[in-house]
Design brief:
Blueprint (H helix, E strand, L loop, with lengths): L29 H27 L6 H56 L1 H15 L1
Length: 135
């Protein structure tokens, strides 16, 4: 029975390996929607705290008017702040995914160079590949 030789330095592509799943650079992913929701909740909480402090200074006779004013401020803030915070969240998550991809590329390159330091066959493959790129 014939056996095929498999070199020990064979590296699987990232998609075929069983390592951590790769994260795609997609600015419209659910992560940016979640971040936008969290930013909106934080902005709403800060706005409601300020509105509550303003309302506390009023007398008790205007309690119903204060309650209506508080919720008017809350819903107006939801309507006005949702789109800008969604854009900020998409921008932040895209930057984070870009940084993650750059970090992963540097780590993979360092791993390749470490492998090349211990195996002359890898160095020869790198030289051949660089020669092909030059022509």
């Amino acid at each position: 029975m014939a056996r095929f030789a498999e070199p020990h330095f064979f590296i699987l592509p990232r998609a075929a390996s069983h390592s951590a799943p790769s994260v795609g650079v997609d600015a419209g992913s659910d992560g940016s929607r979640t971040l936008a929701g969290m930013l909106l909740a934080a902005a709403m909480a800060a706005l409601l705290v300020v509105a509550d402090q303003v309302i506390d200074t009023w007398s008790d006779g205007h309690l119903l008017a204060a309650w209506v004013a508080l919720w008017t401020v809350a819903f107006a803030a939801l309507a006005l702040l949702a789109p800008p915070l969604r854009h900020v969240a998409a921008f932040a998550s895209a930057g984070m995914f870009k940084q993650l991809a750059e970090w992963r590329a540097r780590r993979d390159e360092a791993h390749l160079w470490e492998l090349a330091c211990h195996d002359p066959r890898v160095v020869e493959e790198i030289r051949v590949a660089m020669g092909r790129m030059g022509t």
